Amino acid sequence: MAVLRTPLCERLGVGLPIVQAPIGSAAAPRLVAAVAEAGGLGMLALTWRGPERARRDIGLVRRLTGRPFAANLVLDFPVADSLPVCLDEGVPIISTFWGDPAQVGARIHEAGALHMHTAAQVVGAIAAQAAATFEHLTMEANR
């Protein structure tokens, strides 16, 4: 496997700065595992799969690869059932999109996972950065 080490690679635990898009049913366990095995970050799309299917798909990814991968949740849809499954299963990276990342960020960090949020607009990126900064400062103050 080719390796191109960058700070992003170090943070994610991957060999290449490549992140697979979590596009619906295409982002299924076999693709996620293949991307991870190739050195990138595979992302499992879980928003519309329900908690039982999410648990099963996470388990399948784990059986196919021992490398880091991410679970993606779209925050404009209900994720209250899927997020706990991801955290209980120890998914190392939780990716979110749309919606307010502040609603899940602290819970993700408290579980020991890395939270990555994709913003579609500058205003969303600024809000996500502000939420992450506030969360970090709050966590530091509570130590």
TrEMBL record:
Could you name the domain of life of the organism this protein comes from? Bacteria
Assigned EC number: 1.13.12.-
Q: InterPro entries from the xrefs?
A: Aldolase_TIM, NMO
Keywords, A to Z, come to: Flavoprotein, FMN, Monooxygenase, Oxidoreductase
Example GO molecular function term?
Answer: monooxygenase activity
Tell whether Transmembrane is among the UniProt keywords. no
Q: Does the keyword Flavoprotein apply?
A: yes
The protein's name is: Nitronate monooxygenase
The species is Nonomuraea insulae
